[in-house]
Each structure stands twice: as structure tokens, then as C-alpha cells.
Amino acid sequence: MTEKQHEPGDDLLRALEILNAADAGGDDDPEIEAALRTLARLLPSASPRQDFSGRVIASVQQAPLSPGRRKLRSRRRAIITSLTGAAAVTGTLLWTTGFLSIPVAEIFLFVVQSGTLAVRSVTFMVDMLRFVDRAARVLTAVLTSREMLSVVGTAAFLSVLSVAALKRLVSSSQPLRQRESMKC
Q1: Which of 59, 97, 106, 160 is 20 to 30 A distant from 123 in Cα terms?
Q2: How far are the Cα atoms of 21, 134, 152 from residue 8, in angstroms, in the given order?
């Protein structure tokens, strides 16, 4: 009686085959869940060593290329290097001759002034928000009280009435002024 013993590799392969054959839409399949549990049980739970990624990159870089292939090189690397060098030389020359120190100082001054203005603006906004919060609290307290609401309503009515009366008074006195200006 020789029984073939299961090796963990067989279970792992079977679980991977089940997951490969599974449809993307069927997440509730018990067979898929069992395969995922098998994978979770068989795969190592420990994290790889800290130098794992460095070792992988080093081995990839040291691996020989297949015949007919060559290592990738950036075509723009020489152009970028030459432009960076030219900019550095130009900047050094302008700085030593004094042409660049004035614009750099002006830029620094502009940055400092902008930062100061931003800080002042933020503090002003905070103060304004505090004022609006206090005013909103007062208005809420006023408008929720019946007595104060009647006082505010009466004041609003009287102010509208006085504006209407003032408008009528101004419009009735306007033709007299026009007549007087025509006589002169």
C-alpha cells in the first residue's frame, strides 16, 4: 500500500489553476475562497529581507542579455547633461560679474514680501471669520426671540416707509429746481 503523499507544491499549483480558471465576476464561489485560503496558508508570512529589492535589481543588471539585444540608454541623457552644464557655467559667469546678483535679490525680496502678504491676509481672514461668527450668533439669537423679531420687523418696516417718503419728497421737489434753473 503505497499512497502518494501530498506536497505543498501540489496544493499551491491546484489553487493557482483554480484562480486562473475562475471568472472575474464570481467572487462568491466557495472553490475560489478555498483556493485563496490555500494560498494564504502556503505562502510565507514573513516579509522579505530589507535588501531584497537591491538584490533583485543587482541580479537583473548583472544578467546577460540575449543575443541581438543591447542595454537601454537614454538618448536625451547627453543633451540634458550638456544643457545643465551650459546653464551652470552661464549662471556662474553672471553671478561672478554681478549681473545675476541683483535679480536674485529682487526675486528673494519678492518671495519674502509675498509670504508676508499671505500671512497678513490669512490673519485678516481669521479675524473676519471670527466677526462673522459673532454676528451670526447675535442674529440667530435675535431672530429666534419673538420680541426681538417683532422689533426687527417694525424697524425694517419703518425704514422702508421712511425711504419711500424721502423718495416722494425728493421727486416732488425736483421739478421746482428745474424751473428755477431755467429762469436764470
Answers
A1: 106
A2: 20, 71, 83
